């Protein structure tokens, strides 16, 4: 059972913008990277080849405290906040050493994908729900 | 005085992911595109060459209702929600025809940038504050 | 019959990097944007919903002469250089007013996509080959 | 003296497109990631804070042999092909296990950056030229 993941990363050149800092849109990608690494840690893939279910994002937010710059080493600590019947909620804390960089939230929903039809929400399959758990308080 | 902007856009191929829909990180970029277009409409640039002030993002969020797909034509309606002494708040509504796709919020802060020093928040200069106004309710 | 497309574009903030110029990886995306616009001009989509054929990129190159900066208005002139049985070759010229910014080439191949199988090259279907033609010299 | 770097990487979700494979524009970024890692291995940064010199890209190309997919583990082997007075040329080979995925080339130039002036090419400083060398044949 996995409930948290700490992703260690370095800022890449193409993630910076003309203000000399990481463009804010990248933080949402960093948070998702940590989510997918958490799933791998649980022995799962968020998007296996040929999968008929998927986990589209329902909501995502970030508050930004300090900028990240080129080659900065940082950590994304992702924790599972809630597992409901059809959704999972995470929170994320991005830090560079002792410095708090940003805090975020992410909610994803489980959906069935059938070619040519709209996605329909569905219950999270048991083999996933038994491998990921809410981070103990 | 400008208080709102309607950005019309088409989904580009590289904005889609393996789920066949626009990756959620792009919505934050779409919202920023609309912001910069609003500034141009007001006769301003958010980042003129050699500028000593900047507008880093303080917070940004999106709720996602429906996916966008390749070549979809959509609109981002950006409205100015609040202009405080040192920050501006926007809200965004992304639609495809009559369909609501996503709703977002964005808060930016005015900062002074001096090479080699941390960014420091400052009051929004008068020549900007007189060209952008809160959208009437 | 379409043989050329002129894409007009403005540099977006998130396309710049910490050097204050457009990151070079974006030029390959600009070239592809022009390609897809050329296809639309021909009444086609490069990737219709449910398509069983696709056009993966086989080769792409750029020589860079001058940088592009935030809010620069530029043009990508894409021309069809060769249509062979299974491949199409384009060349691209990126300009800002009278200034030459970059020149590129792109080769794409027609492939059949069957779920769970590797992509296999195939002849370009007649309804495509009759709508796109080589740019007259 | 460093002359080659092997970057190990996993494909991230946001690097895929609706065709289910890595979008070709990412290979140019992978190649650059390997270049910057090579510089760090040599005890250098390609873009130190406050630097007055830079290394804009002059040319870059890729030939694509096989696609990469989500979570594929791959390697970019970057080798230094030529160090001239003002330019450096690299070649790159992207592989997934024993499978050749793509081969690329990259040429960068050394320039002096003065705020408000165009970039001017200059000789590569000695402290860089003494740490990076051409890969022996």
Unreliable residue runs of chain A: none
The CATH architecture of chain A can be given as Roll
Quote the CATH topology of chain A.
Answer: Thiol Ester Dehydrase, Chain A
Separation, N- and C-terminal Cα atoms of chain A: 15 Å
What do these coordinates show?
Four copies of one chain form a homotetramer. With 137 residues, chain A is an alpha+beta fold. Chain A has a single domain (4-129), classed as Roll (Thiol Ester Dehydrase, Chain A). Chain A is built from two helices and eight strands. Chain A has helices at residues 25-41, 126-129, and strands at 4-10, 53-54, 57-64, 73-83, 87-96, 99-109, 111-112, 120-121. A five-stranded antiparallel sheet of chain A has the order 1-4-5-6-3, with helices on one face. In chain A, a hairpin with a 2-residue loop joins strand 5 (87-96) and strand 6. Chains in contact: A-B, A-C, A-D, B-C, B-D, C-D. The B-D interface holds B 13-14, 16-18, 20-21, 23, 25, 49-50, 69-70, 115-116 and D 13-14, 16-18, 20-21, 23, 25, 49-50, 69-70, 115-116.
């Amino acid at each position: 059972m996995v409930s948290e993941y700490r992703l260690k990363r370095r800022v890449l050149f193409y993630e910076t913008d003309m203000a000399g800092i990481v463009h804010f849109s990248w933080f949402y990608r960093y948070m998702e990277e940590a989510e997918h690494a958490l799933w791998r840690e649980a022995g799962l893939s968020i998007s296996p080849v040929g999968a008929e279910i998927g986990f589209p994002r329902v909501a995502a937010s970030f508050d930004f405290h300090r900028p990240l710059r080129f080659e900065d080493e940082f950590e994304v600590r992702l924790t599972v906040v809630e597992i409901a019947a059809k959704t999972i909620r995470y929170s994320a804390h991005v830090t560079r050493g002792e410095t708090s960089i940003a805090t975020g939230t992410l909610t994803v929903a489980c959906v069935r994908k059938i070619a040519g039809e709209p996605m329909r929400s569905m219950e999270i399959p048991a083999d996933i729900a038994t491998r990921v758990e809410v981070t103990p308080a």
